[in-house]
Amino acid sequence: xQFYDIFNGDADGICALQQLRLEEPRASVLVTGVKRDIALVxxxxxxxxxxxxxxxxxxxxxxxxxxxxxxRGARCRYFDHHSAGEIPQHPNLRTFIDTAPDVCTSxxxxxxxxxxxxxxxxxxxxxxxxxxxxRRAAELLQLGPAEIERLRELGECVNYNAYGETxxxxxxxxxxxxxxxxxxxxxxxxxxxxxxxxxxxxxYRDDLYRVESVKPEMQNGKCAVFVLPDAAWSRRxxxxxxxxxxxxxxxxxxxxxxxxSGGYLVxxxxxxxxxxxxxxxxxxxxxxxxxxxxxxxxxLPESELSRFVAEFQRQFTS
Length: 318
Ligand SMILES: [Mn+2]
Fold this sequence. Notes:
alpha/beta, binds manganese (II) ion, Diaminopimelate Epimerase, Chain A, domain 1, globular
């Protein structure tokens, strides 16, 4: 019999697994990738009696692969907070799915484990940008403000490590990062003793420093467009950079473009104070899609850049 641990490569996925494995130690096959790699269950070929634990990837995306595993006689435990679609009933499937905006997968695992590894859920909630939930969970642990700040820093660093087009862009493969983390019962010991933490912290700082020098392609009070060069650091930092812009300018919509061969990868966030219109804009381009507040275009041809900037301004300036 084989155990498979299938998890998002970001802080939430890694810390969810960390909580479970501290409570239920076992050797398992690790299946993970960059943050945007979410079709993970289809990567395994389970046999009858095998057990899958799936963490922090949308059930909707993985439903078919889960059903196939169940049909083969495998068992599956599924924890997630992304929109799930219809969840089938099956005697070998247990789901812990909650799409409330103030939970993340690690907080669902925390609930499942009755808080026994809660400090890792605090790290994860910070990594998923759920600052209020992170602080609420931290309150019960009676940590000092300086300790909470350090947990936030760890959450942000582990989350940052998951951003990239492929794992080649990352500093650490998320499976290796989990493996390193798994030797520590307490995240504070990890930060004190593990050089990996300092590497990530410094790399994150370097990437943010580089992106600071990128001048906006256009900006006004309502919206701004940034174009980052075709480089691994751009692909790593574009997500955290977008989060940072949204927090610093809640009244402004943002587009962050990353140059790639023949065009751009585009990520659009509507203003936090007016969180809609991003999907309408992106759908006007081939390979565009997303949600009202956050959407993207997988490949914007170079020749369409000026049209994109014009339509972006029209969408968010009116
Ligand atoms: Mn998550």
